[in-house]
Amino acid sequence: MSFEPFRTLTSKTLVLPAENIDTDQIIAARFLTTTSRDGLGKAAFYDWRFDENGAPKNSSPFSGYDPAAQKILVAGANFGCGSSREHAPWALYDLGFRAVVSSDIADIFTSNALKNGLLPVEVDEQTHRTLLDAPGEEVSVDLEGQTLRFGGDRQAAFKVEPFARRCLLDGVDPLGHLLNQVDAIEAYESARP
């Protein structure tokens, strides 16, 4: 699979300060009836965004959300915990997010996100608290430099596993990366009878 290459993203944030946001809150099990990524954004945080009749909740943190201007989600600690559903990063990506920032992001969610074009960014507690306290802050995420810039001149470093970083920079998942190496693989194989 391919997606838009990730280099630098500058965007306003949407803040969800709640801790322990699990994958069932990101996309409820009742929406897991497809293996396609298309259209899952409408189910992302559905119970947070809509009432039992499907009408938008005015009290929702997503009220007024602008996917064109808010591509960075700042979430409370332990984001993405729970089940290992790959639909969660699919839904967030389809909703318009390209990065999730927290002080702690669940390992399985991180792995699934990295394979699907969504950058999980773990930052130190002080940076995290500053971002949680500043909804709508303009933040710049530089994947090449592994640096997050915010608040004018402030910055924080983050780390991304090197292979996953390379795939995001190239806009491919791991299989796409291998497929991009077909010529080199065939040349290596043909040189070894």
Could you give the distance between the termini? 32 Å
CATH class placement: Alpha Beta
What overall geometry do the principal axes of the alpha carbons give? globular
Helix content bin: 25-40%
Mean pLDDT: 92
Work out the helix count.
8
* CATH homologous superfamily identity: Aconitase, domain 4
Low-confidence stretches: none
- Give the DSSP E fraction (strand runs of 2 or more residues): 15-25%
Give me the strand/helix succession. Answer: EHHEHEHEHEEEHHH
The number of strands is: 7
CATH topology: Aconitase, domain 4
The radius of gyration over CA amounts to 18 Å
Number of domains: 1
Structural class: alpha/beta
From the coordinates shown, what is the CATH architecture?
Alpha-Beta Barrel
Instruction: State the strand order across the main sheet.
Output: 4-3-2-1-5-6-7
Main sheet characteristics: 7 strands, mixed
Brief overview, please?
This protein is of the alpha/beta class. It has helices at about 25, 45-50, 85-95, 105-115, 125-130, 160-170, 175-180, 180-190; strands at about 10-15, 70-75, 100, 120, 140, 145-150, 155.
What tags apply to this protein structure?
193 residues; alpha/beta; Aconitase, domain 4; seven-stranded mixed beta sheet; 8 helices; globular
What do you see in this structure?
- The chain is of the alpha/beta class.
- The chain has a single domain, classed as Aconitase, domain 4, CATH 3.20.19.
- Helix content is 30%, strand content 18%.
- It contains 8 helices and 7 strands.
- It has helices at residues 23-26, 46-49, 87-95, 107-114, 125-132, 162-170, 174-179, 182-190, and strands at residues 8-16, 72-75, 99-102, 119-122, 138-142, 147-150, 154-157.
- It has a 7-stranded mixed beta sheet with strand order 4-3-2-1-5-6-7.
- The longest helix is centred in the middle third of the chain and has 9 residues, at 87-95.
- The radius of gyration is 18 Å and the shape is globular.
